[in-house]
């Protein structure tokens, strides 16, 4: 059985208050559509998430000095974008379990899954319009497109006989890291950061996202028929692949921590640094 389906949220211990506020913001957002056909299915889809992307957004805003309701609204948009991608990814990957329960497509069927993804994009656009900041809307749009590009690239590469580490990193950048990057960047924008601070936090998010995905792949490699498995299978010595992955993991995690030096010291920056523990779990 896939380990990730039984993993307790490791963020609860240190970030319970933040996660509670994010969950409340998501609940309030969904209640705007309580009469919709999508209300109950979306409640189901959003249950049990770690909320790491919203958390990065909130802490990035706080690290600059300003975190208001707009930041929590934006955190909902980021989590909804992740949720939409999970719904569709689970169909593509033929998942049979997600967060200790049926994946969305098994619970509600393929048609509802596809239509729900469309509805979620509408929710994200609505939130973006309320934030009244064209830059945030552009970041969310670019992120959605890049995540889709990453999924397409991965789908093509899974049938290729010549997958490289560069291919693997590119897919991670597009599918995973771009959402982490957007979360940090949007938080910095809403926090009123300078361009240097915005770029530094964006770089933090991107590097953390890559490290986070590498760690996840290292822990789940034997349970997922992904690009990492292809790299292992084509290698004459799988240990070389694992060693290179662990080096990459440490490199990207350290890069993420280094970029935070451009952010003023304080509780929020310390919490962003502590989030990097998620990339350094035992593998």
UniProtKB/TrEMBL annotation:
Classification via InterPro entries:
Isoprenoid_synthase_dom_sf, Polyprenyl_synt, Polyprenyl_synt_CS
User: Which Gene3D superfamilies does the annotation name?
Assistant: Farnesyl Diphosphate Synthase
| Keyword NADP carried by entry | no
Q: Which GO terms describe its biological process?
A: isoprenoid biosynthetic process
Q: Which UniProt keywords apply?
A: Magnesium, Metal-binding, Transferase
What GO MF terms are annotated? metal ion binding; prenyltransferase activity
Q: Name one Pfam family in it.
A: polyprenyl_synt
Q: Superkingdom of the source? A: Archaea
Q: Which cofactor does it need?
A: Mg(2+)
**Similarity annotation:** Belongs to the FPP/GGPP synthase family.
Q: Which PANTHER family match?
A: GERANYLGERANYL PYROPHOSPHATE SYNTHASE, SHORT CHAIN ISOPRENYL DIPHOSPHATE SYNTHASE
The name this protein goes by in its record: Polyprenyl synthetase
